[in-house]
Write a structure and sequence with these properties.
- This protein is an alpha/beta fold.
- It has 3 domains: 112 residues, Rossmann fold (3-Layer(aba) Sandwich); 85 residues, Rossmann fold (3-Layer(aba) Sandwich), CATH 3.40.50.10800; 78 residues, Rossmann fold, CATH 3.40.50.
- Strands 2-1-3-4 form a 4-stranded parallel beta sheet, with helices on both faces. Strands 6-5-7-8 form a 4-stranded parallel beta sheet, with helices on both faces.
- The protein is globular, with a radius of gyration of 21 Å.
- The N and C termini lie far apart (48 Å).
- It binds 1,3-dihydroxyacetonephosphate (13P) and iron/sulfur cluster (SF4).
Length: 345
């Protein structure tokens, strides 16, 4: 059934009957009507990646969310990513095609549970992996992503105990890289990366001895010890430009993206079963529905949002993606000369 663009349908299921071309046309049209930007994580389905204005890892997407001029951000990723966009751009409307797309790793720790741990370690500093709720970020000193976790931890004085939440594998990797022995790790993990095992790597290596082994730091330490490179999904995309053959220890969506982009190169998933079902909840049909109906909107309590923003901005500052306004800029801003000074470098 062909629809005119003006018509909207009630549910995402109704959109699932439309052709891919119709969905794409509708998405592009509504996107421009709403002055919206589509941010897509590297694990998204290929058809979502194709309509994304910006594709990247958690760090790059948060920098983009902080900098965009769009009125609406449509986030194709998981809940904590959309929430991060809202924290950094509170004046914008942030939409998610499917609000059930959560990150099970983020659910390992709640704000209250973190506060209990902080009471046990009163002189500690809390570092929250961005894969956490806004409430957890609000109770943390600084955030980090898989691409800057080591850099972030290095900014914290060596004598301070660090509470690192919620990923135990990333915490262990940071501990090993920094040589610190005072990191208390939360016992959370990502089911996709934690399930990757050495036997699969041995098989992939035997079949592709020439390939460089690149593994995401959410994987277990025995696997990371075997990697030629440990890096974020964005780092993997950059390595794919450089090398002809990679074994990738991460979610399948990234491998699919690289195969589309470089059909003549060899990209081997460490495990064909490494699929994040949560990321895959987003479909083209739901994206079209979301833009047509302006739903589902991410809404945050302002007290939590503003405190979470501080820990995210601290991280962006460390990563060079955001700079606190200088004294002079602040004066100009107060005088109304620079009305919306966000400090973006
Ligand atoms: P990146 O920041 O490396 O894209 O990782 C996000 C994530 O959820 C990995 O599972
Ligand atoms: Fe969360 Fe793992 Fe999915 Fe990343 S891959 S969104 S950490 S469950």
């Amino acid at each position: 059934m062909a629809l005119t663009l003006r018509e909207t349908l009630p549910t995402p299921l109704d959109y699932a009957g439309l052709s891919r071309d119709e969905l794409r046309e509708r998405i592009l049209q509504r996107k421009s009507e709403r002055n919206a930007v589509i941010l897509g994580h590297n694990y998204q389905r290929v058809e979502i990646q194709e309509v994304s204005d910006f594709l990247g890892d958690s760090l790059a997407l948060s920098q983009e969310a902080a900098d965009t001029d769009a009125d609406t951000i449509v986030f194709c990723g998981v809940h904590f990513m959309a929430e991060t966009a809202k924290v950094l751009s509170p004046e914008k409307t942030v939409l998610m095609p499917d609000p059930r797309a959560g990150c099970p790793m983020a659910d390992f720790v709640t704000g209250q549970a973190l506060r209990n741990l902080q009471e046990e370690h009163p002189d500690s500093v809390t570092v929250a992996y961005v894969n956490s709720s806004a409430e957890v970020k609000a109770h943390s000193y600084i955030c980090c992503t898989s691409s800057n976790a080591v850099q972030v931890v290095e900014t914290i004085p060596e004598d301070r105990t660090i509470l690192f939440v919620p990923d135990r594998n990333l915490a262990h990797y940071v501990q090993e890289q920094t040589g610190r022995d005072n990191i208390v790790a939360w016992d959370g993990y990502c089911y996709v990366h934690d399930d990757l095992v050495l036997e699969e790597l041995d098989k992939a290596r035997a079949a592709h001895p020439e390939a460089r082994v690149v593994i995401h730091p959410e994987a277990r330490e025995d696997l990371l010890a075997e990697a030629d490179e440990v890096t974020s999904t964005g780092g993997m995309v950059r390595l794919a430009e450089q090398y002809d053959s990679l074994i990738l220890g991460t979610e399948r969506g990234l491998v699919d993206q690289l195969r589309e982009r470089y059909p003549h190169k060899t990209f081997v998933p460490l495990s064909g079963a490494a699929v994040c079902g949560n990321m895959k909840l987003n479909t083209l049909a739901k994206l079209a529905w979301c833009l047509d109906h302006g739903r589902h909107e991410v809404v945050l309590d302002e007290g939590i949002r503003s405190r979470a923003e501080q820990s995210l901005r601290r991280m962006l500052e460390v990563s060079g993606g955001w700079q606190a306004p200088s004294e002079e800029e602040e004066k100009l801003e107060l005088a109304g000369v620079r009305p919306k000074g966000c400090g973006c470098g």
